[in-house]
Write a structure and sequence with these properties.
Chain B: This is Methionine biosynthesis protein MetW. The complex is a heterodimer of chains A (390) and B (222). By secondary structure, chain A is α/β, with parallel strands linked by helices. Chain A has helices at 131-144, 158-169, 188-203, 220-234, 237-243, 263-278, 281-293, 304-307, 328-340, 364-381; strands at residues 2-4, 15-19, 25-26, 32-33, 36-43, 53-57, 83-84, 89-90, 95-99, 150-156, 174-180, 314-320, 344-350. Chain B is globular, with a radius of gyration of 17 Å. The chains are: A alpha/beta (390), B alpha/beta (222).
Amino acid sequence: MSEARPAYGEGFAPKTVVFSPDRPLLTDGGGRIAPLAIAYETRGTLNAARSNAILLCHALTGDQYAAGVNPVTGKPGWWEAMVGPGKPFDTDRYFLICSNVVGGCMGTTGPASINPTTGKPYGVDFPVVTIRDMVRAQAMLIDHLGIETLFCVAGGSMGGMQVLQWAASYPERVFSAMPIATAAKHSAQNIAFHEVGRQAVMADPDWRSGRYQEQGVRPEKGLAVARMSAHITYLSEAALQRKFGRKLQDRSAPTFSFDADFQVENYLRYQGLAFVERFDANSYLFVTRACDYFDLAADYGGSLAMAFKDTKTRFCVVSFTSDWLYPTSDSRAIVHALNAGGASVSFVEIESDKGHDAFLLHEPMFIATTRGFLDSAANARGLAPDGTSK
Amino acid sequence: MNYTPAADAPERPAQPLEQSRLDLAVIAEMVAPGARVLDVGCGDGALLQLLAQKKGVDGRGVELSQRGVNECVAKGLSVIQGDADTDLSDYPDDGFDYVILSQTLQATRRPRAALANMLRIGRRAIISFPNFGYWRVRAQLAFSGRMPVTGRLDYHWHDTPNIHLCTIRDFVEIVDELGAHIERGVAFDRAGAPIRFSAPWWVWNLFGEQAVFLLERGDQRR
């Protein structure tokens, strides 16, 4: 194990822990990842009792930069609305940890990393990873940080799947859990959308059977299309209508061509282009696959309740009314299982027309709910407002 | 004839909590310290908070209204959005020591099924409800010939959530049918004074404006 600092922009010093080959990550698919680097960020201060640590799990294409300025994009972190001093994930009170998932492309070992057996990038030879593999890698990081029990594990979408997996795999290490806008299994529709994205990447001639890195090209067009189709699923029809409707872009009449006449086309094209700047196409294949394979109940004889049997973890499940990618019914299934397992569970469906993305945005009721849940959990855990152990 | 649509009716004056939800204190008194409690139709969580403070219970709630659920969760209570009529069947047997239904029975679509589920989920059930056999209720219907509107039943017939009203006698009968056993029962008059337990049923039924019952599952009797 050693602390390394990969070369990013000046003034930016991400933390990375590298686990040496004698501590490989053995994957569900029978793969072996070694050495394993995990890139992470922390905010706030770990108290003396090591009892105030929160692990934030990022969504599909997120990264370890939950708050502050993302050094790669120059934009605010993905959970800027929720993380910071005085915000629900209060950095004055809690010690926040956010790592990049295994299979990702922001410093944690993934398909763009060098395969030690060939000396070349893994590409599609990277072991197919699962949500449980991602959580196993996170647990190695939490061990490395010397934290026995996490005060809370929280995250939305794919991050929410990790939260559920944490609670199932390590119940004694998770004091409270917030699975947000997520599901205990990926639906056929979810898998279908991901397959469209993967096929778009693989149909790009520059994908080169996943070996594009060695050949100095990138399947940007395919990845941009993948992002465009995925982006639609993150929004709601109401939000798209409100924002764009059928408004035209920089013109007063249609051009009767395939230019981006409509504002919504222009918007999606921009989203696709911005995405290829920061994300690796092979990583996109691997993280979408990890979500598709996720089916927590299947690991427990088909009973989701068994995954949470006798858990002491306090749960707060949150869904959003206009989220059609991970609809409220998915969250209800989780809540029913937790109830059957006798767990302490709260469930709130937040009224919002912003679709799946609502969990990343400023939703006052969501913020109030999170604050209320964390405050009461902190009291139960004996955490003072300054984050010290009472 | 002087007709006032309900929407134009003046706002009802807010009653002080102690008086308006007298049943909460009585329910709290019936619950053993440290018990596992499920409050069905928990509203804004007032009872769960009271139980946590006074009795140190491990409380959970189910509430139909999103507003109520959000208020509860913001208070740090373990509450989920759900419907007593449909969601209780999802709960496993014997998950709780007490299942409470305060001032909600009359608003359920299938009160008998709700009660049966409560006695399945919990060893004991506590139910509080407005007594439709209360003399003022009877008098209003008898003398004015109109559906009663009282302090406990303060809705007009056409906009009331209360669809299955019953009297104390009716309730005792359904408890019998369910094979459950009444461990305790308390009725209050309009002033909130309890009617003596030793009083005969007809006195309760006539003078009790509301009632609270602690039931025990039938198979618990020895």
